[in-house]
Write a structure and sequence with these properties.
This protein is an all-alpha fold. It has eight helices and no strands.
Amino acid sequence: ALKQAEEFRAAVHVLLEWLSEAEQTLRFRGALPDDAEALQSLINLHMEFMRKVEEKRVAVNTATGLGDAILAVCHPDCVTTIKHWNTIIRARFEEVLTWAKQHQQRLEAAHAELVANADLLEELLAWIQGAETALIQRDQDPIPQMIEQVKALITEHQSFMEEMTRKQPDVDKLTKTYKRKTEPDKSRANRKSLSQAPPVPIVLLSQAETKNPRINQLSARWQQVWLLALERQRKLNDALDRLEELKEFANFDFDVWRKKYMRWMNHKKSRVMDFFRRIDKDHEDRKST
């Protein structure tokens, strides 16, 4: 019995030391990198850590089994102590295992998000390249002098603007994600004060510099294409207004215009006379003071 007690004490001591180190390792993980290779390295390291945790499960079962064996033959005064240490090592091991699984899920989710963001970034860069080329090419073509043709171009350009608007949330998502990862870690007080500050407009976030050059390239080119699209929209609308004015001028009839003008003047004169009649309280056709 004494030999079993010494073995149990030694096993518990070794397990408690390992559990303390494992808890420290899991507690101070820090921020996750935004590089796929670095994140994969962390995943590989954590898988090795998980393997060691599973290996320690055998040691935990051996120690608690030894404790249970001692409980069957020990003095009643020792029962509480043996049960206490069995409960401690079981509970702390399960806690470490739970933390490790949660961290594994966090790493896998971050890696999946990183891969998805990288694919989305390349997709947006390819789209913006094609959009910029198309806008420049269309801007080089002369604007037609037929109203229906210009309206068709406006409808086509409106569809492009709507598509770009639909993609704007993806650009904002990528920009804000990488900007958040590159911000320096601050104290809890600073984070609290920042959380109470008014939200930054999306436009400012999209212009923010990050450590990822591809994100900076996307932000700059997106803004450039947006300005090109607005400029083309202005040109098409101006061309349509000019053509419609020319059409109206070609069909201009002075007599029709004169009649409309006289009706407008008579209506305006009537409104003025009605106003003066209302303030002519004495009905003397003059304004009283």
